[in-house]
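step 3/5: co-fold with heme C
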Amino acid sequence: MKFLNHLTSFSVAAVAAVGFIAAVPQTGYTAGAGADLEHFSPVRTDRALQRGARTFMNYCQGCHTAEYQRYSRLAEDIGLSEKDMLENMVFTTDANGEQTKVGSLIGTNMSKEYAKTAFGVVPPNLALVSRSRGVDWLYTYMKAFYLDESRPLGANNTVYPNVGMPHVLADLQGWQKPVYHDDGEGHQVLEGYQQVTAGKLSKQEYDATVSDLVSFLDYLGDPNREARHSLGIKVMLFLFLFLALAILLKKEYWKDVPHNS
Ligand code: HEC
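step 4/5: write tokens
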């Protein structure tokens, strides 16, 4: 009986320990996180991801791929039919010059050779960039392009100085210039931006566009997160149920045994 008591105590402790480990949130590693990054919480609704995907296909995919994800899987995940996807978001063509098949990876039409000549570097695959850079970095980066005539493409970026990428959303955001102040110890601190020319969107609308875009990049970097979280909750519920059963079982076994034996 003593053995049984140990056994049930052990299973109670084990269940509690597993539950505890499962409940501790996994903190992500954010590369290059500086002090000045804006905090951003991605939005995982179908509507936000659809808008983000549209911006990606219209403004980013000309240079960048997202080659870990397929159009068909994306359609399914963000609540679009394959027909909608093909009609509205597939702008790439295959080797025969025909529209890319819906089961293909999200590629780009720009050849690596051309990109190298035009930009000096091949624009990276953006499928996992939310993992390597973090969403705060991406959100701040997309709002940090500014007018700089000294750069070959006329644009610079306060988050990624001397970036090789042009300000591709300039028609939406317009052009801005950074405003710095001296912190008294000779360091230039970024205070904000001054709008030089207006874009098609207001500041709020531009922020919302970037929010959807970065939410989409966040989704690309971890498409299974929703499913994993809901499975995690089910596992936790099961563990708690099992804990309750284990406690009841222990009580049942010990109810006839005198306490001082
Ligand atoms: C005209 C081509 C072009 C377009 C269009 C373009 N980019 Fe880029 N992008 C580049 C190049 C080139 C680089 C590499 C810059 C460097 O390393 O200096 C880059 C780099 C980046 C990086 C940094 C990646 C890293 O980890 O270093 C991010 C993030 C990024 N682009 C996001 C976007 C998004 C989002 C869009 C769409 C709104 C977009 N890009 C559209 C050319 C482009």
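step 5/5: annotate
Residues 59-60, 62-64, 119, 121, 123-124, 126, 129, 132-133, 138, 141, 163-166, 168-169, 213 surround heme C (CB under 6 Å).
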